Amino acid sequence: MLYKNITELIGNTPLLKIDRTVHGIPNLNLYAKLEYMNPFGSVKDRAVWGILRPDLEKIQKDGSKVLEMSSGNTAKAIQSICSQYGIPFKTITNRIKVQEVKDTLLLQGVEIEELPGSSDCHDPNDPNDPLVYIHKELTDRSQKNILHLSTITKEICRSIMKRPEPKSLPI
Question: Where in the numbering of this chain does the Tryptophan synthase beta chain-like PALP domain appear (predicted)?
């Protein structure tokens, strides 16, 4: 099959049935969704594509830049998609702990702004720490979860249950 854009390969990842001799649990069918087979290597590809796709034309037209507090698989997926559309991406983070990840992001053309030594473990009771608020706002977004569940649930229903995918999800 011929694809015209790498984003067409996001999702529809293989579903592997784990043999009972591996998990040893009688009367259980166990499956693994191989999300690492997404083009940028992670389940984050789905969320990033789902969030960026509706606004890509507007971002291009406005000459805007994508900003995100990501430092790993999400950042790699954002950069890969943004580069397909000629959109600059900047990550603002204090969390890049592995030099190889940082080098990969820089090699991909990500602009990285590193924040000074804030702890990854914010005190949720500190009302004066703006990072607590920002972190909560960014991580509580249900959009990523809904996008992920709406695509992956349909794929699993199609693969395992051999019946049509649900038209809507009770989310």
Answer: 6-120
- Asked if pLDDT for residue 19 goes beyond 90, the answer is yes
Look at residue 110 and tell me if it is in a domain.
yes
Domain presence at residue 171:
no
Q: Is residue 24 part of a domain?
A: yes
* Domain membership of residue 107 as a residue range: 6-142
Give tens-digit pLDDT for 124-150.
566 666 655 555 555 555 566 666 677
Angstrom distance (rounded) from CA 145 to CA 157: 18
Position 164 in a domain = no
Cα atoms in the 13 Å half-sphere on the side-chain side of 11? 17
Instruction: Give the β-pairing of 89-93 and 111-114.
Output: parallel
Contact of 31 with 160, CB cutoff 8 Å: yes
Cα separation, 40 vs 157, whole angstroms: 24
Stated as kind and residue range, the H or E segment containing 30 is strand 30-33
Question: How do residues 150-165 score in pLDDT, each as one tens digit?
Answer: 788 888 888 888 765 5
**Number of compact structural domains in the chain:** 1
Question: pTM of the full predicted structure?
Answer: 0.73
